Structures are given as structure tokens and as C-alpha cells.
């Protein structure tokens, strides 16, 4: 883990930014609009994998997740067979939690239903301004391994809710919406 060189000379960031990997994510991705469905689906899945773990752990394994889940292609993930998902339990490059792994397929199938009804996952997700209604709707579509904390973190990470702490150079006191 590469620590930040001279934290005192850096721009002020959110308190969880403790190393270079987190800084790159924070400065270039966190709290930013994502318009393509695969990127949003990836983010939703990664937030699910993060449950109970640090975000740094997920980021360190993100490339492997992208590889084993075919770039989070929604259609391909919806068609994943049990054998492939079971084999991922043996892959040390990812988080090997069976429920989280199988949730990718179920959530891909739910995302396809959302896309059929709303035109895109982007239109659907960004139509919500609060976590509770989004969580309720996600569950109604059959999403699994989603909860209040995870949905709030997801909405922050994609810029629907204010993501940054006061004092962070990326903080805005009045998020859009």
C-alpha cells in the first residue's frame, strides 16, 4: 500500500483517503456522474462486495472483478452459469463470498428488467434523489444483497448524494437535485 507522500502539502480530501489508490479513486471517480449502464452496474456490484469490508480492499481487487465478470457486461453477467460462479469461490484475486458472487447474476437479471421498463439503468437510477425509495424499488425488481447503507454509498459514489466531507476540495454544499 503506497502511502501519501506529504499529506500536509496535499489538497484537503475526505478523511478516508489514506493512500495513493484511494486518492486516485477519490479525485477521479468518487461522487461523479456515471452515464453508461455497465459502469453503474459495476458500481452497484462493487458496493455489494464492499459490505463488511474496506473500500480499499474492493478497489485493490477491481481489475480482477472486471475480468471474472466480463467487464460487468450486464447481459453476460445475467447469463452466468452456476459452474462459473462456483469456480469464482476458488479465485483468491476477488472477494470470495458466495452470496455476493451469486448476487452479481441476480442483479444483472434485475437490471435487464429495469432497462426494459425504463429504457436504461442510468435513467432509472438517476430518477431517485433519496436512498430509501431507490432501495425499495431495487428490491421490487428483485435485486439482492442491497441494503440501506449500501444504497446510500452507491448514490454518493455516483454523484446523486453529496459524497465529500466538508473541507474536502471536492465538497459542494448544495448537491444537484
Automatic annotation (TrEMBL):
Binding-site list for Zn(2+): 14, 26, 164, 168
Top-level taxon of origin: Bacteria
Keyword tRNA-binding: no
Gene Ontology process terms (BP): base-excision repair
InterPro entries with a match to the protein in the record: Adenine_glyco, DNA-3mA_glycosylase, DNA_glycosylase
GO molecular function: DNA-3-methyladenine glycosylase activity; metal ion binding
Alphabetical UniProt keywords: Metal-binding, Zinc
Pfam families: Adenine_glyco
SUPFAM superfamilies according to UniProt: DNA-glycosylase (SSF48150)
UniProt key word Ubl conjugation: no
UniProt protein name: DNA-3-methyladenine glycosylase I
Organismal lineage: Bacteria, Bacillati, Bacillota, Clostridia, Christensenellales
